[in-house]
Write a structure and sequence with these properties.
By secondary structure, this protein is an all-alpha fold. The protein has a single domain, classed as MetI-like fold. The chain has helices at 2-46, 49-64, 67-77, 87-117, 120-128, 133-148, 150-163, 175-185, 190-203, 206-222. The termini are far apart.
Length: 228
């Protein structure tokens, strides 16, 4: 009976304190990754040769560095990087930056592919009526490209939320760190605690990747967008 009461107390603590931290890391990592990734994609598609080289180099570097290494670099090794923040927030900011930088490298590829999948004839038609390349990209190409990218973005969301678990290694009290801490305090419950953590991750990834991603893919195919 006591064991059951302890488990529900632990679960409540994980949901109230750990889950919001995980969702915060995931949300900000995706948002900043989107902004940087879209910029990199535009550099690759429309930029001059030097900008294309920079964007390509960035993607290769960030895809080649493990996310845990980035978190140690920005979360611990470079504490002064976020000198303008309170000390207790610097590690958190380092983790968010790490997730954003890594996600941007993959989102860049996603948006570049989506932009290139939009018919070149639409850009030419927009230019023929007096639009600049920037105007045509903003009003014609990007709205379609972002819709095409939704299935891939849902997969990236799942990657980032799982990568956020590495933040436990640098001391951020997110879902996995709290689950691991409680499993060490209550060794008799560790299987239940870690299994529950796995279920929580599954709940927050499967519906997005399976339902949203697949439905959007089918819808895009019906509209003749996104390939397939």
């Amino acid at each position: 009976m006591q064991e059951s009461a302890d488990f529900w107390t632990i679960l409540t603590s994980i949901i109230i304190f750990g889950l919001p931290a995980t969702l915060l890391l995931t949300g900000l990592g995706l948002i900043f990754g989107f902004l940087l990734g879209l910029g990199l994609a535009l550099m690759r598609v429309y930029g001059v040769e030097e900008l294309k080289w920079i964007a390509d180099g960035y993607e290769k570097i960030m895809r080649g560095i493990p996310i845990l290494v980035l978190m140690f670099i920005f979360g611990w090794a470079l504490p002064g990087f976020f000198f303008f923040l309170p000390a207790q927030l610097r590690t958190l900011a380092g983790v968010i930056l790490s997730l954003s930088l890594r996600s941007a490298a993959y989102q860049s590829q996603l948006y570049r592919g989506a932009i290139l999948s939009v018919s070149e004839g639409q850009m030419q038609a927009a230019r023929s009526i007096g639009m600049s390349t920037m105007q045509a990209s903003r009003h014609i190409v990007l709205p379609q490209a972002l819709r095409i990218a939704i299935p891939g973005f849902s997969n990236e969301y799942a990657v980032v939320i799982k990568d956020s678990a590495f933040a436990s290694a640098v001391g951020v009290p997110e879902l996995f760190r709290l689950s691991r801490s409680f499993s060490q305090i209550y060794p008799d419950l560790w299987i239940m605690i870690m299994f529950t953590a796995a279920i929580i991750y599954l709940i927050f990834t499967y519906p997005i990747t399976k339902i949203v991603g697949e439905r959007m893919t089918k819808r895009l195919k019906a509209l003749g967008l996104g390939g397939g």
